[in-house]
Fold this sequence. Notes:
- By secondary structure, the chain is an all-alpha fold.
- Helices cover 53% and strands 2% of the residues.
- It has helices spanning 2-31, 43-70, 83-92, 127-141, 145-156, 177-182, 191-203; strands at residues 163-164, 169-170.
- A two-stranded antiparallel sheet has the order 1-2.
- A hairpin with a 4-residue loop joins strand 1 (163-164) and strand 2.
- Helix 1 (2-31) packs antiparallel against helix 2.
- It is rod-shaped and about 170 Å long.
Amino acid sequence: MRRLITRGRLRTCGVALVGLALTGLMVLTALQHPESGQPRVDAFAVTHDLASASAAVAASSASATDTSSASPTTAGSPPSIPSSTAASTFTSTAVVPSPLPVLIVPIPPQAPTPTPAPESTGTTYSGGDIESIITAAAQAAGVAPSWLISTAECESGLNPNAYNGSGPYEGLFQFLPSTFSGHGGTDIWDPTQQAQIAATMFASGESGEWPVCSR
Length: 215
């Protein structure tokens, strides 16, 4: 826009200067004397030349104006971009969102459900009764009664109804059910059977079945 205004002003100034020059030449021609011997200025020739120069200036200004109006781009406005180029530019700069991270929550291990104690005979015995039962079984097998008594006290506290679910270990000498039945036992809660089987195993060198308490 500024370029168009500047060129319009230049064209106006050029026409004004040509007019002033023509006026000055006509005044000088009128003031010259024919008898001075100097060649007289041909005002019409100069006028023709100035008119040609003025027309040239106007033509150049008009061509510049046409060129400026033919181009829609003005100062400060961005050049137009073909639709195909714009589409390719948009496609190449498209941002693909990254997938959201998956939160994995570990599940804590559950404690094993304790095995309930099987039903015992419910018969209660005194400490003296249990020691008497163990002593009789040890003497019958030829084993020192004190050894068997200390082992039973370590294993169950002389309680024929003791139960440990980790084995499970049951009874006076904390037998595994498979071990107890494997040696002929039928009632694992009977302290007499427990004492007799334990005395037999001690006598045959199997005290290692109680690695802690039989020492």
